Records
---
Amino acid sequence: MAAPSRGRLNRSETLWGYLFVAAPFLGFMLFGAIPLMGSLILGFTEWDLASEPEFVGMQNWSQALSLHIAALPVEIDEATGEPMYRCGRERVPQSQVGDFTGRIDERTNAPYVCEARYARPGSVLPRGFDEWHQFNLFGQQYIVGAIDPIFWKAMFNTFYLLLAIPISLVIALGFAIAMNQNIVGARLFRTIYYTPVILPIAALALIWLWIFNPTYGLLNYFLGQFGIESSVNWLGNAETVKPALIIMLIWRGLGYQVLIYLAGLQGVPRQLYEAAQIDGANAWQRFRAVTWPSLTPTTFFLVITSMIGTFQIFQEPFIMTEGGPYFESTTMVMVIQQNAFRDVQMGYASAQAWILGFIIIIFTLINFYVSRRWVSYES
């Protein structure tokens, strides 16, 4: 019987190769690429699921991204023509501010603080814009208005939560170096630190709700043992809610980061440490010249994955704070979810999702570009 020709064998191998890659390719097209392109098209439409999508061009993108910055003038007293100030609850012209100097506010038992009063935001912002933020620059008060100020506040909150990444990486590296030593119970410690990674996020959120409880929470109890104020409403205060979420994010991701760093440490060639010791390098010099350069690829990987994960954070603030107080813990994904499934603005939510996607891509590319300066790969 004649052996099959080489051409027939090549065609058969090629056919089987295409068959093997067909399943993941079709899966990607059906559940990835096609929905992705569909959401991009929806970003240029107005669609409430009950009617046909209506093409609106760049309206959704403009609504999400439009900003207006304007100088905010000081409020003027119509009777005297003087700038107005607020001293406690009193509205007084500038000439009467001196009457409050050194006086104690009976309501707060604190000295009066007089601050300039500014015109209402609506008097300087274009129609359709609402106040998002105010700032003072060189003695002039400015206001930043947006068509969708909640989206911009959510964007700021999401960027703020990125502060958890460098803090958690430093802590994880320290724990990894400690557990990489020949100490008793090292495997037990590795298991304990990795446990939060495998627990359901909903369960973790409920645990931290209990920890942050202002009345009987563990954190306030712990602070009280050191004489620190122990009645802080961590999740109900606009000034503490984001730091509280950062604490939780650090704890949640620490085990995974420690595990990755441990794998990186065990891959550092021992001969490099031996050579450094022969040259008389101390512990810090060995870390700076051997350990850290060897761990820069690992650190870069953790920076990228942690950044993408933080940009997509949703479950933890949704369960713990529902975005409050006053939208101070609302994230970009929470806004997208609310616009899509609560307000049924699918076109607007799709545009916001693509804006978030572009932000992630831009920051990832920036990190890849900057990594050339500090990431060291083995040649």
Note: The mean pLDDT is 89.
---
Amino acid sequence: MKYLDEFSNPDLAKKLIDEIHEITTQKWAMMEVCGGQTHSIIRHGIDQLLPDGVEMIHGPGCPVCVTPLEIIDKALAIAKRPEVIFCSFGDMLRVPGSSEDLFHIKSAGGDVRVVYSPLDALTIARDNPDREVVFFGIGFETTAPANAMTVYQAKKLGIRNFSLLVSHVLVPPAMSAIMDSPSCRVQAFLAAGHVCCVMGTSEYPALTQKYKVPIVITGFEPLDILEGIRMTIKQLEEGRYEMENAYVRAVPDAGNPVAMEMLNDVFETTDRTWRGIGMIPQSGWQLSPKYRDFDAEYKFEVRDIHTEESELCRAGEVLQGLIKPHECAAFGKECTPRKPLGATMVSSEGACAAYYTYRRLDLVEV
């Protein structure tokens, strides 16, 4: 299949790996921002094929993983209400809150439904006018346009029993927060191609100049990632720090102007807490005042819920690239996909889940 077989070609992969070895003369540490890239790297063993001293640092690019614990608890509080039909993508149902998850709510009789589009939730609201329907809107810039369109349609059609529980986060502010950390080891970034499909490339040149780090936009197939690594190391070896696009087949510089217009209408930027990391200023979206009536936090009065993270779980350090998943003492022991302490173990894009699934199970004493 086009873009699957050809971007997994082992002969081309070997050529790229050989070139990476040829041009590498120093130790380098780069961060892949997206959890989908992390899974591809671990699944295909890309990090183990790189020259000694070239390290892939796994970033906070899993939207499920960085959804703050307090938002999960707000979702649980709303989903327990008898008048509510709570709709979500399936990957959120097993993300642990303070004491339970959405599956527990569902098994106890809560009306929790898996949908494949926020528009499915809007249809459910239209078909059930006597119930309140809430969609759990999480994600980076990639999933935000569909959620924005759904709220726009709800307002346009006058479907007042629909609302959105919003937990959208933005990639560039997170990259800045990582670079501003005194413990930061990141020397370059592989940026998430799907985010740039929506938002374009305009935000990255300023980051390269401010922090003097290369940023290469990449896709998710093995050859995409290897080419992104090759371009990144070439910049590092030459002492350059520029934004380059290695995913031109999908990412135009301007992004998707129609989607961005919708986002600017429905959302406004806000400070946002990232699970395991903390608050990053202006790193998220919330519904703008024009659409406040569709904000589930206001409708169900759950804005004041606050929580504390597990003391055993070191997912925050994993998300910041400070440790690898297997360096957490709870990895594979107290924390498994069946009984996760944090979202990084249960999410389909989580770094801990990648290490567990693809047998990076070396347990170490910490």
Note: The longest helix spans residues 222-238.
---
Amino acid sequence: MKDMNGIKIIAVDHGYGNIKTANCCFKSGVAVYDAKPPLAENLLIYEGKYYLIGAKHKDYDGSKVDDDDYYVLTLAAIARELLRESLTSVKVFLAVGLPITWVVKQGAAFRDYLLKNKSVEFNFRGVDYHIDFAGADVFPQGFAAVADKLRDFGGSHMLCDIGNGTMNLLRITDHHADSQQMFTEEFGTKECAAKMRAALMEEYQVDVDESILNAVMQSGTADVDEGYLAVMTDAARKYVREIFAVLRKHKFDPKLMRLYVVGGGGCLIKNFGEYDASRTFILDDICATAKGYEWMAEIKIRKSGGVV
């Protein structure tokens, strides 16, 4: 969170798997109730409804404005950031993003969706908040994670942002992003989880908890039977090979360009991929894109003379 003339710039990276700010990460699921649920550690109360935050992951549907989920998740993200500085009543400028190829077609609708209320009051984790919205900007997802590092991108690079729902690709050549070479594929890490679950069902006729799948994807191992782990590992390797097949489809050549990977899928390439480590850089910071949104918003506001 950054301060600009008394306005708090708060970035929110609205993933299908996780919501990220510059300083926190939590699951993007929402469960809504008409009455207070008995177990409600992450409860958000808004307009008479009770929202359990992080109950599950959001399903991929190609749009983020079809229901109130991402609005409520944004409120929770704002509260998580404000809690760090013991603030409860502030004016907020939102810095957010969408997959690269969605920004032009969906950016205005997403901005309007997030700013549908000029001010909002809600309660999160027992604390009351009052937020006045000063505005919002929508930036290209993935690219934001490296926007402040373009000076390091001499030569030819392929930026690969792998989230839960989508895989975004962008060619960067001699420090400049190529708007003619950007692609969004519905091939996020949820595909890997589905392949691992299906492989276990086929081999051992067992269903596996999502927490185990996440552990294997993130660390390469889990506290499970060796046979089960081998099946999941093999499925993850197949998924990563398919990632590189998608890259080649979009003319990635590891001998001519470097690969820069951001997003949660980077750990899969690191744990299960075969690649040239001298020409591949994997950014481990899951909050990197949100930090990039903040940086881009701050630069844009400064260039406008502080006008939001």
Note: The chain has two domains: 2-142+289-303, 148-189+222-282.
---
Amino acid sequence: MSDTSFFGVRQLWRPGILFAATLVLAACSRPAPVEEPVRAVKVMTVRLGGLQATQEFSGEVRPRIESRLGFRVAGKLVSREVELGQRVRAGQVLARLDPQDYRLAADAAQAQLGAAVTNRDLAAADFKRFKELREQNFISGAELERREAALKAAQAQVDQAQAQLTAQRNQGAYTSLVADAPGVVTAVEAETGQVVSAGQPVVRVAQDGARDAVFAVPEDKLTLMRQGSAVEVSVWPGQTQLAGRVRELSASADPVTRTYQVKVALEGRQLPPLGATVTVQPKVRSEERNSAIKLPTSALRQDGQATAVWVLDTKSMTVLSQPVQIATADGNEAVVAAGLQEGQQVVIAGVHVLSPGQKVTLYREKAASALASPPQTAVGASLGTVAPVPGK
């Protein structure tokens, strides 16, 4: 090989070596950091706003008196005369037990009464005869007193047998369950063929008359409900307005929901039907109405164990995390008890995609405008070929 060819080979290898070295250096160098995008956010300025004058509670219309009726004696249920939702009148038979055993007991008491009457009549005859003998001085006074005591004992046995017969007859009458007052059957708790004990509920009857709106309130709203305070009741869906007054307030909270049950006596001629849904609005005194900072729930986020919001720093256009304390809810907004000051700007949308110190811009809605498209030059099928212009 000549020197000229060898020199040509060396000239070809030099660019390849330089290119390989460039690749190695590029692989070892650190990649440039990706810039965090600047997000557009919606903000609101913190202002003091008035709280709603009233609170609404959802409730249900219930009867003032709802009786769970049961038999006063035990036995087998042989018939049930009413169905769920049926209206009943006072004295109407609701259900019956098998009365056979009670009839036999009444017959036995009747027989005991007959035997007692016979013994009483015999003792009375003996007393009459011995009384005549005493008048003739044929017997002593002590003997007459014994006959008189026997007559009184026989009379007591008659009275006892009579009372037992009356009790047995009452027991037989108790095998028929009757309604105490007119109303509506709201529940059936026993069926035909079932053996029930004395006092076991069989039928539940809501008596006609006064009705209540029953609802539950949390502990922090319990001060709005006072015994005898006036409330406004709206009946859904007709939105009929009724006046009411707090009649009963539970003394202890429900062990599961930790709420207090309130009963409001409804006033008016046309009361809503049983089971109707109502909303109750207590009439709050004017001095109880005050102002507070309110935020939409979309502005809140969970930061560890605390509730926080993003506060905008207008100088650096960055967001800072600010813990807040929520007092209660006012409609669809949260009432802030502490953590914010009037005039601060709080992010109210997109709070879950932000990070502390992140730069942001203010979101502004742009009105859509229709732009006319300019005429385009026709392009031929072949790339880079311009269609011929007529006349050229």
Note: The helical segments are 3-28, 100-135, 141-173.
